[in-house]
Specification:
about 180 residues; mainly beta; 8 strands; about 70% strand; elongated
């Protein structure tokens, strides 16, 4: 049994060494879309629905299969309405997100690969109206799954589903669908 375990470890080490190359840094930009529908006590769901937000990210592919990535999304300002008695009032919410994560990539062929990310995410949401002030920040688990289509060695298009911590009743929901482009150096 010990010989088998040693042989497996040696084989994995040899494959990793054969795939080893210089780390490849990259930067990217994307459009992230999250649901901005709010649950406000005393009224039904309200808000602007899905809204696009700007995302910037960068990372380092340490090997073709393993890397690290960090990103920032500036959540688009969203409007909402709520009721106090028979009086309808309005307000707005704004926020931001950031994450740092490890990334595992599995090539399907030369042009397409799938990946998963797992790490820590931070979300901050602020809401305001004449009678309502709301601030919330949360650090939690960040996760994503996606696909990448390589247009060339340097340029790729990405599509991913992201999750920033727990679901929220106010502000952009924890889920996001992101379309992006990245450039590798």
């Amino acid at each position: 049994m010990k010989k088998l375990i040693f042989a497996l470890i040696a084989g994995v080490t040899a494959m990793t060494a054969a795939q080893a190359q210089s780390p490849v840094p990259y930067v990217g930009v994307g459009v992230a879309s999250s649901d901005h529908t709010y649950k406000i006590s005393g009224g039904g769901p309200d808000g602007d629905g899905y809204k696009p937000s700007l995302k910037v990210f960068g990372g380092l592919d340490i090997t073709p299969m393993w890397g690290v990535e960090a990103g920032y999304t500036d959540l688009t300002k969203a409007d909402f309405n709520y009721k106090i008695g028979n009086d309808t009032r309005s307000g707005s919410a704004d926020g931001k997100r950031a994450y740092v994560a490890g990334k595992a990539t599995m090539p399907v062929n030369e042009m397409f690969s799938v990946y998963g990310k797992l790490g820590a995410g931070y979300t901050k949401v602020e809401g305001s109206s004449p009678n309502l002030r709301y601030k919330e920040s949360e650090t939690g688990v960040y996760g994503a799954v996606g696909g990448q289509y390589n247009l060339s060695k340097q340029v790729a298009l990405t599509l991913e589903y992201e999750r920033y911590g727990k679901s929220k009743d106010f502000g952009a929901k924890a889920d996001a669908i992101t379309v992006g482009a990245r450039y590798s150096f």
